[in-house]
Amino acid sequence: MNDNIKIWAVDKASKAVKPVQSIKGMETEDLLEKLLAENPSMLMPCLTLVGRQTPTDSGPLDLLGVNEDGRLVVFELKREKLTRDALAQVIDYGSYLESLADPELAKLISDHSGQHGIGKIDDFESWYRDQHGRQLTSLRPVKMVLIAFDISAAAHRMVEFLAERGVDISLITFHGYQDDETRMLLARQTDRGIEARGASSKLSQRDARSRLEEHVKEIGLEDFWKDAVDTLGEFSNYQHVTKNGITFYTKRDDDVQHDADVNLPGSHSVVIDPSGKIRIKFFPRAVDTSPEEFQKYKKDIGFECESPPNAAKTEQSSKQWFCELDEKEWNMHKNILTKLAKNVHEKLKRG
Q: What's the pTM value of the predicted model, to 2 decimals?
């Protein structure tokens, strides 16, 4: 626990202050793992957890996830001060997963999903292809994340050493505080220096877009793809490019907090499907704005519904809607999809 961090509770009416007491890691690790399993956004945006206590040759790894770029992420939690032993352990887990052939890795995840509060994935390879539009080779290299309440100087130095040499490793420190008898506060501290160095191989948005455009050209979808992205991207404030597609974001006109550097919820996306089609998705917050319109065109466009692995559900909409179109189908439904994207964008802007 970092004793340099002090927190006070302030009564707005009386302006009275009282110190908030810190809680040692021993008291919070079990609770923290449960909270992280139920709320993966506490770790990173658009993270899908696919395993908890997944067995390996060296023992069970705490949490296993797939991030928004389709990369496999290993999370190792420690209740006491994080030492070099924990670092060796997370590297052991990462190297084990890297050593597995793609079918072995997919089977490991499928067989042990659906346990300890993690959703069941019957066929991980199909799930990954549907969600990320790529083959399983895109899961590597494995990203490693250490989670602790405190870290020793030696372990911190070793993590920095690995990150400086291009190993994708991150460090997250949680601090627990007891506000009163019923409420606990958790503060997350990310070492941005280590994160930046460890992710040095991560593409910039400009490079990611170039790579994506090259991939589109290779599979012969250049004109088709450009038309769909330009058309649907017009109705957004911000775009985020991943290996296989582009997610579009809309913010409220009165929202001054969100910009391109924070976790702004997505509205819709265009993704390359391995079949050579494009997959157009509208996330629950988008469907929530115009449910009657989506129902109206569901049959004509061939919309299907699914639980969103990377997007937040709303009280009214628990599903995201998607369609898979070839170039002929896109041209046939372009006007309707443009209308839907425009309506969603305008309504989200108004809040």
A: 0.57
